[in-house]
Amino acid sequence: MSTPARCAWARHDPLLAAYHDEEWGVPEHDSRRLWEKLMLDGFQAGLSWRTILHKREALRAAFAGFDPEAVARFGPDDVERLLADPGIVRSRAKIAATIGNARAYLAMRDAGEDFAPFVWALAGGAPIREPRRDASEVPAQTLLSNTISHALKRRGFKFVGPVIVYAWMQACGIVDDHTEDCFRHRR
Question: What letter would DSSP give residue 182?
Fold first, then answer.
């Protein structure tokens, strides 16, 4: 059986290949899952995505399955518990941002603004597909990632700069950045 052609970043690592083949770039329309993926991309800032994939299950366990209702109730004792957990990224700023972002997510919901329709409306309602011959053509941020970043920050979110938001847009299928030689391109 031959190996399928993948995006360059996923060619030489089985963990990244599985993530690429099964998750990355698949359009996500579930609000809670979109929020979880955004939190994971925030934890990734300054680290490799491979590190986050290794820690993802521990992060899910530590943050109550990324249930915004539960995370929003976390207090100082929870922060200290999380800072002592060797299975996760132990950054006080990222932990505090995740708790605050759960509260911001719930505030949006309580104001009648559902996260998934909000995000997808900003993106025009469908995945954005730009032709990419190779990874050098993939931007780190775009006008849209800046727009979404600012909209989230206005709603109280942290660790949602335009570069983090663009990586999240790729992960959630808001933008399809599979290169043209990849078997997942435009699927």
Answer: S
Secondary structure class of 161 (helix, strand, coil): coil
The amino acid at 163: V
User: Which of 180, 174, 184 has the alpha carbon at shortest distance from 27?
Assistant: 174
Q: What angle do CA 68, 72, 73 make, to 5 degrees?
A: 125
Query: What spatial distance separates the first Cα and last Cα of the chain, rounded to whole Å?
Result: 21
pLDDT at residue 115, as a whole number: 98
Distance of alpha carbon 18 from alpha carbon 139, whole angstroms = 23
Question: What's the confidence (pLDDT) of residue 136?
Answer: 86
Q: What is the pLDDT of residue 131?
A: 82
Q: Look up residue 27 and give its amino acid.
A: P
How far is residue 43 CA from its own chain's centroid? 9
DSSP strand pairing (175-176 vs 128-129): parallel
Phi, psi values for residue 128, rounded to 5°: -90, 125
**Residues of the chain with confidence (pLDDT) below 50:** none
Amino acid letter at 87? G
Report the predicted TM-score, pTM, of the whole model to 2 decimal places: 0.95
Please name every residue paired with 128 in a beta bridge, in sequence order, or none if there are none: 175
Q: How many helices (H) and strands (E) does the chain have?
A: 9, 2
